[in-house]
Amino acid sequence: MDPMTEQAMADIARERKNTSFSIQAMAEYVDGGKDLHNARKLAHNILKRDPQIAFETNPFDLTRAQWRWKTAQQVSRINEIRATLGKTDPLLADAISKAAGELSESLSMKMYVHDMLYHQSIQLFGTPAQIKEFIPKDPRIVGCFAMTELGHSSSLRDLETTATFDPKTNEWIITSPTLTSTKWWIGAAGQSATHTVLVSQTIVNTENHGLSWFIVPLRSLETGRLLPGVTCGDIGAKAGRHGLDNGWIQLTSVRIPLNNMLSKWMQVIPSLTQPPRVSPPPHPAVMYATLIPERISALTLLQVLVGQSVTIASRYGVVRRQGPGNPQIIDFQIQTVNTLPLVAGLYVYMNAERKIQGRWDRLRLEAVKNPSVYLEELPDIHSVSAGFKAVGTWWGSYALETCRRACGGHAYSAYNAIAGHIADWGVVTTGGGDNYTLIQQLARYVMGIIQKVLANKQVACIGSTAFLANTQQILKQQYTFPQDGFKDLHSYVTLFSSLVVKMGADLVSKFKETRKSNSTADVWNIYMVDLTKLGTIFVYQHLFSLYQGMSDLKNEAISPVLLKCGVLFAADVVRRELLDSVLEYECMTKGQVERLRETVYSGAKELRADVVGLTDAFGFPDFILKAPIGRYDGDIYRHYFETVKNAPDCFKTPYFEDEVKPLLKGRL
Amino acid sequence: MDPMTEQAMADIARERKNTSFSIQAMAEYVDGGKDLHNARKLAHNILKRDPQIAFETNPFDLTRAQWRWKTAQQVSRINEIRATLGKTDPLLADAISKAAGELSESLSMKMYVHDMLYHQSIQLFGTPAQIKEFIPKDPRIVGCFAMTELGHSSSLRDLETTATFDPKTNEWIITSPTLTSTKWWIGAAGQSATHTVLVSQTIVNTENHGLSWFIVPLRSLETGRLLPGVTCGDIGAKAGRHGLDNGWIQLTSVRIPLNNMLSKWMQVIPSLTQPPRVSPPPHPAVMYATLIPERISALTLLQVLVGQSVTIASRYGVVRRQGPGNPQIIDFQIQTVNTLPLVAGLYVYMNAERKIQGRWDRLRLEAVKNPSVYLEELPDIHSVSAGFKAVGTWWGSYALETCRRACGGHAYSAYNAIAGHIADWGVVTTGGGDNYTLIQQLARYVMGIIQKVLANKQVACIGSTAFLANTQQILKQQYTFPQDGFKDLHSYVTLFSSLVVKMGADLVSKFKETRKSNSTADVWNIYMVDLTKLGTIFVYQHLFSLYQGMSDLKNEAISPVLLKCGVLFAADVVRRELLDSVLEYECMTKGQVERLRETVYSGAKELRADVVGLTDAFGFPDFILKAPIGRYDGDIYRHYFETVKNAPDCFKTPYFEDEVKPLLKGRL
Description:
The structure is a homodimer of 668-residue chains.
Chain A: H1 3-17, H2 23-31, H3 34-48, H4 64-84, H5 90-103, H6 105-125, H7 128-137, E1 143-146, E2 162-166, E3 171-175, E4 183-186, E5 195-204, E6 207-217, E7 230-234, E8 247-251, E9 254-257, E10 267-269, E11 277-279, H8 291-319, H9 333-369, H10 371-406, H11 418-425, H12 435-454, H13 471-476, H14 489-515, H15 520-526, H16 528-548, H17 559-584, H18 590-608, H19 611-616, H20 622-625, H21 636-646, H22 656-664
Parallel strand pairs in A: 1-5, 2-5
Antiparallel strand pairs in A: 2-3, 3-9, 4-8, 5-6, 7-8, 10-11
Helix pairs in contact in A: 2-3, 3-5, 4-5, 4-6, 5-6, 8-9, 8-10, 9-10, 9-16, 9-17, 9-18, 10-11, 10-12, 10-16, 12-14, 12-16, 14-16, 14-17, 16-17, 17-18
């Protein structure tokens, strides 16, 4: 065996052996318990052995057309498997869907637009009768979700698509009146969707009643051909997600029945004698509720994609040496300090994702059972999910790029997965709600509460904003980071609380002053960067509050290392992103800034010995990782070389006669 | 015309008209004078009209094999054009090469490995006789440059390839003894190179004399087939640069003549009676000199790739509105504050690239005429080029991602270029010298000088380190940023000088203390993150010193705006990257940190009105940009839509019967 291979394999085996905690216990924690852990392992094995799903060719050796086809094939096969093996075992059926999501981001999204976006829209916007009608139809259709337009995304109220009610026939006429109203980026609309839920301006009696949701058939169920009046096309080449047929949709006077408007919150009631009557929604936010699960799903994706990249980078860092006598590269301080906070951060976000997802799962049941509870909590979870999506996905970008750099040149090869994760991830910071917009949405919500508290107006500080009830009290104190607080998560939570309140209160008074000579929109714009910061710190406050309160910290097998993860990530966040605010509000002295840096360095070094265990516990098998340099067994070079040698055209120069020969005759 | 299109075109025309300076004057400055400007425009027109170069299909609609072929075709055609149209006009010939580099990064690199890396290696490492021999041969070969190995990159001294001298035949036997010694990532080795310069351990009389450079034939000039003992293959799928055939090389006892070792600095002198004698190089750095132009070229690439992305993002920011009544998105404060420092930064780096390139051009002539001058200045430019490559390319990554986000979802389409730039750029922070390694190389150089100055040892503070001659003086003063210095470039230069000296001196004493109980390598590792920071700040010191001294600031047509660019970028750099150091060394008060932030906000807002002019002056025509959303005329939506509609398979679902139909029969 190659000497470097031998050393690499011995290195990773030794690391694994020396892990300070039970990797098995941690893996079960990560998967949410023993049963779920076992179901996930079983699902992995089912997928791994299925040649239509875990196909032989590296996806980066496929053409776009082939990749789209293969992904469609995977969807089709996953459904067969769920319908057969998962039939009597819902835990397994669910695990298969999740495992499929780990296998390929294109596959994941192609399933997601139907399973989640299309479905949940009907659940959230449909009446009980409509849910009953449209969900049973579901097995016979492929659904997608049409919101964004070529000319509009962040400002939904300016969408141009119109649905005009025709009282003569009790139908809606759906139209894309301009080029810029073309629905754009719609996942699965490019080649495969037969139906879409579509958001549109709602015109009744020549009056625009705002946005509502419609079910529009797109393609024939028999032939797959576009229905009359419908033009859909594939969006072509993208940065990543090459297997997903994102598409565009133009509708030209397409007629659909009245009942195809989802009518839980807004109803149009026709009459034989009078003009139709419109009953408006109780709160505009209810009309955007599908955005909430969509945003929470960004945190799930963080675990999947960033989790895989961090696993690869950690293992590579452990097995890679620049020659046999040299150190493992992860032990270079800059690599330790870059990599370990990523591992820690994933555990911190994992907890938040569970808590917020759990809250939403409870809440969306209330939408049916108990609409007033639903309406009361909606603004908070709406804002929180927006903020977490923004801050979490920005961090994900940073994490992925850090992983790529940690692997040097070899992560530039498509065969080592990270490059593909970066490309797939690209859309996440701007799609599903542009991050700049989302973080301001949260800031607006937070500012609203602080404003009211300061004005002694009645305001319910529910959910994430509970700590804002103490605004007046926090404002009275000069907060200084406790001298012995660097290893205590609570200090960081208090720091974030204090910063949110102080920045918020400052902005409230700056707003007042500036409003004297500016419009409200201008005032907002003058402080937009500061407001972005406010929103970001609010997210950290909630992120670490949730982590501080996690019940799992009581599990002794894993709690010490989880606690270290929390402290390391909190210190890292302050050091990388918040020093300016910390110093502006004099929350730390010069000496403390040095201590903070030391906390990151020493915390990273301390967790370094557990890096293999912590990432093994994420539970991604090699066939999911698809990255020879991140192999479980450390045998990286041979497998990497084999992958390259097996790629098509490895030993061919088809253009030698045509293009190289002329050069050999003479150059300038 | 679509209403949003009409508005977009009017918006950009108005911006252009209202630019505060002469765009033509700035464009000539950017191109380095009127003659060069005209040559570039002519070169653009020649390329644009050539169907083999500016081919119709969008490159992202090609397969990898097609893209590799097309790029080879472009190289071949560019050479014909240079040999014909450029024959009597060296300015034009050069402009054609540069314009080709703007058109495609794959093309650029494929030309570069032969024209620059292969050529310059012979020039820098060859004797006059060898230069004469190998350069005239050049028109009959395609050269590449083999350094990196599968198992080694940053630690060159651990490379495993061996060249063993056989005194019986006066030949070298070149061998790749292990899998990990496989030369890896070698541009053009995959399919097209016929020769390589190759760095290898040099074994004479069974003793290893370190690295030297060899010319090794790889493929038959007649048939393109691999020569006996040579195994080369294509590296397959990468993140980007899909048209470039990066490859790998394994050599098995390949024999080449003695004279194929480039022998300017190190010679092997055979003898009939005695063992061969080895004359070692005067300084190890001379053996790595090709790395200098390679690193400077990263700054050129910054102008080309990041310049294009910033042009696209700026124009899109100006024409994009979320509906007709809404603001131009670039006027949202967060967009202004993100985008304008990028524009400014490009002008600042542009100046540095010229100065450093100019210095190297002078210096490499000295290598022949005046080796002692060459040897004296080599360590400085070696370290400076390393540091600039690291800091410049890190900034480039940040800039490209910021551009992508500034364009929202539409930059996720491959047809709008930025996604491709990000993918192409990916390799730059780790390839051509890993940035983490390079910045430490510079830090080591800087620390060496500061150590000597502090110990009152004789040291020549030449080139970039001139200011370190004042180390003792700077240390004596408590530096505080001048109250009225925020708009004065000089304040920032002084700030950077002061920080370098103070951090350096602190590290010198920390080193002394730590060395008592640690090895030298461990000491370095304990402070590696701090040393990275030291190197980074040193780069900024030099970057802004060079900008401050630029003679072009006397050109009144453009100097006011250029000066604003310098101040904005300096303030932005401190705000984004250096606040922790500024505060640790108490260089700014709390109030000044706020002023600094205000300087960035107001500076960005002030330059905002010139954003179209400043990016127009970069001089990238639409056929180079290949991004409908960055079109010169603002007519973005129609062209974007046409590109998508013309992509292959836009209206096809080839897998409907096989993969969609099964779904319509029933899902779980």
